[in-house]
Amino acid sequence: MMRILLLNLCILTGLQGRSVYAQELQVGDILQVDHLSPGKKIKVLEFWSINCISCIRGFPKLEALHDQFRDELDIVLVNRESSQKVQEFFAKRTNLSPPSLPVISGDSVLYKKFGDLPLPFQVWLDSAGVIQAITEVSALNESNISEMLKRKKISARTVRKRKVSTSLVDAGSKEWGTKVNYYSYIAGCSEQISVDRHLGTTISDDRIRISEDCSRILDLYKIAYGEDGKFKFPYWFSTKVNVVNQGLFEEKRYSYDLVVPFGVSAGKFIMMQQDLERSFGLKAFVSKGYYSMVELLAQPGPNLLTTKGGSPGYLVQEKNNQLHMQLRNQPFDSLVHILRKYLPKLPMLLQDRSSYKMLGKIDIGLCIELNEQSFLKSLQTELARYNLTIFVNDIPMDVLTVTDK
Length: 405
Description:
The protein is 24% helix and 33% strand. The protein is built from twelve helices and 19 strands. The chain has helices spanning 53-57, 59-68, 83-92, 110-113, 142-151, 168-172, 174-177, 217-226, 248-251, 268-280, 332-342, 375-384; strands spanning 3-5, 9-12, 30-33, 42-47, 73-78, 102-104, 121-126, 131-136, 183-188, 198-204, 207-215, 239-242, 254-261, 283-298, 313-319, 322-331, 348-352, 361-369, 388-403.
């Protein structure tokens, strides 16, 4: 469940004694923010926006790291938009899950203190609130977290500012760029160009634009074949990649920009599809499929999960093809995150409809078979001991296939 927090911060003088009220914050300055747990050794602020799709796609990774290092790591999301706007955004997009991490919304202070940095970026603090690093999100990984726990520093470089130009054409000449009526290009991700995101936006009286900044090839294909909501590919199993060079889809990032006259704009997504095929030599098509929605429900009867108290305990272990789980005095969401992580690698999602997350901390112990055939049956048997159950419903979905054949 997403928790919206109010911002209350104290910015202190850096190690060199300079005033940071009039300057941007840097590594070595001290930043104290309410709602960051004082007992945690590492505190990370991630700056994001509802207009940043790569930010939202990264939430599951953040939640998994938070669960893995829950006793030592605290992560809080920071965005400029109001809490109402954030809630409305996710309410209208049922294919996107709001973050379960704490969120500071409506921020008008922190963004100004870190300058014009490309979203998303992260600020690492130690237990005393000293800024240890300002990084791109790829730096928040198991290796760097472990390194900072040992040495109070990480080896990742500070994220760099980018000179913001709205397109490659405008970067050449603002005056010339405004006179170009029809163009498209695919370019490698650039430190100098930050392409605005448009999905068929009217940018003048007679021009329509599609553009995306620094994205993976697969994400560009999703935009081209999604056709601004006509088809949706929100889950990992919504896409199939049948190509020899799998690394091509992860290693490089590209920006795409298309501007066409309004009179031919009906075919704008077909134009983008053709551009991608010419550039990468990969064909794609959309077909229909199904996925299983596993709903977690409470059965009639007493609440058998209420914690008996004591020191919080968290044990998750794989042994003999079984998942052994012991949670003591933990939030109910911890159970939900674990089950989502260990679902069989099939078109399958888990949704919590039990309302137990509103009832406080829980104790629970489960032993679940870790194979596709018996996982759900085993899970249902174990959950029944706590007056919980699951219901499985098959739901139609769009499937995007990208192939080099």
